[in-house]
Write a structure and sequence with these properties.
Layout (H helix, E strand, L loop, with lengths): L3 H28 L5 H91 L1 H19 L5 E3 L11 E3 L7 E4 L5 H8 L3 H26 L9 E4 L3 H10 L1 H9 L2 E4 L1 H77 L17 H7 L3
Parallel strand pairs: 3-4, 4-5
Antiparallel strand pairs: 1-2, 2-3
């Protein structure tokens, strides 16, 4: 389309020039009917020469215009190709990023679906009273078994009144601490689902009645004087329910404490188990200290016996030293006498009789010196 535009313009210019030539020719013929035919032909020839020169100029201009248009088209085509290449690369990158994000979104959607399934399962568990009790029992067992050693607790321990609490933690030098994991959740669920003021009032009344009844049952069955601890724990396996209970039913919590039943959440249960663990550790340290004191007493007795035996040995060593000193004195005398024997001097006078000649050192030996 761009290549045909200069040709169309050139054709239009030729048509216009032809029309002008025709116009001038007709005008010349009409204006000067008596003029000579040679003058008219001369003018026509001049016009044709001018038209031909103008056609050449137009052809040259068309050629230059066509070359310019081709150059600009090539530049535009190159830019367009580069732009399309960049656009294609950017589009590809964006599609890859979009694909990665879609994969993340799919994974998140799957996790949300799984979470919704778990929440539905948890809701079905919490709606069933027996399943809810098993859920609280399992959470309580996980907390206690992770913190305390075996033998320090027992689940479903049988008391003297034939009752079996959810957990009994054995305390040193006293009775077990009883923990109950059954919580009346139906009233709290009804309170959260209440839409009118009347339903809310009835739900509040039901919450108070159910909790106080459960607290009274715990105190009656699990607080045995002389056998168990003076307090018992009521475990609530939900931090949100515990917080709502303390926020909206403070009077119920106070009455439970006066009944010596402490309501605890999972966090408080962990803290309580840590305190119990430290108490057991202190008791073990006291027991170990008593054993150490007994062993130290036996060791002191052995040290005294050793001291007596050392003193006896020292006395024996003293006597041995005295005997050794006497032996050394005797050996000294023997050495002196041996020295005197070595220093003997004999008289070489032949007239002297051997029997009459007695060396002086021998005479001293005979004399006992």
């Amino acid at each position: 389309m761009v290549d045909t535009f200069p040709a169309i313009m050139l054709a239009l210019l030729c048509v216009i020039l032809g029309a002008l030539v025709t116009y001038f020719v007709l005008r010349a013929r009409q204006g000067d009917g008596n003029s000579e035919g040679g003058l008219a032909e001369q003018r026509v020839a001049d016009l044709n020469a001018r038209i031909q020169a103008m056609g050449e100029l137009l052809a040259k201009a068309q050629s230059q215009l066509q070359q310019t248009v081709h150059e600009r088209l090539d530049a535009v085509t190159a830019r367009l190709g580069e732009s399309m290449q960049n656009s294609t690369k950017n589009t590809t990158d964006h599609l890859q990023q979009l694909h990665a994000r879609l994969a993340v979104i799919d994974s998140a959607q799957k996790n949300i679906t799984d979470l919704a399934t778990q929440v539905s399962s948890l809701n079905s568990v919490l709606n069933n009273k027996q399943s809810r009790g098993a859920f609280g029992q399992a959470q309580l067992e996980a907390i206690i078994s992770d913190a305390l050693p075996k033998g320090a607790y027992e689940f479903q321990h049988t008391l003297s009144n034939k009752t079996r609490p959810d957990c009994a933690i054995f305390m040193p030098d006293s009775g077990p601490l009883i923990i109950d994991a059954k919580f009346p959740l139906e009233a709290m669920t009804a309170l959260r689902a209440a839409t009118t003021e009347e339903d809310r009032r009835q739900a509040v009344t039901r919450v108070k009645q159910d909790i106080l009844k459960h607290v009274a049952d715990i105190a009656q069955k699990y607080l045995i004087p002389g056998e168990t601890q003076d307090i018992a724990l009521m475990f609530i396996p939900s931090e949100s329910i515990y917080a709502e209970l303390y926020e909206r039913f403070d009077d119920v919590v106070q009455r439970a404490q006066r009944t010596r039943v402490m309501i605890v959440s999972p966090t408080l249960m962990v803290l309580a188990i840590q305190v119990i663990k430290q108490i057991r550790k202190d008791a073990q340290m006291r027991e170990a200290a008593d054993q150490i004191r007994d062993e130290v007493g036996h060791m002191m007795k052995d040290v005294r016996l050793l001291s007596e035996r050392v003193r006896k040995l020292q006395s024996h060593f003293g006597q041995t030293t005295e005997d050794i000193n006497q032996i050394l004195i005797s050996t000294g005398k023997i050495e002196k006498r041996a020295t005197r024997i070595e220093e003997l001097e004999f008289d070489n006078d032949a007239s002297a009789s051997p029997s009459n000649v007695i060396p002086a050192p021998l005479r001293k030996l005979e004399a006992g010196e």
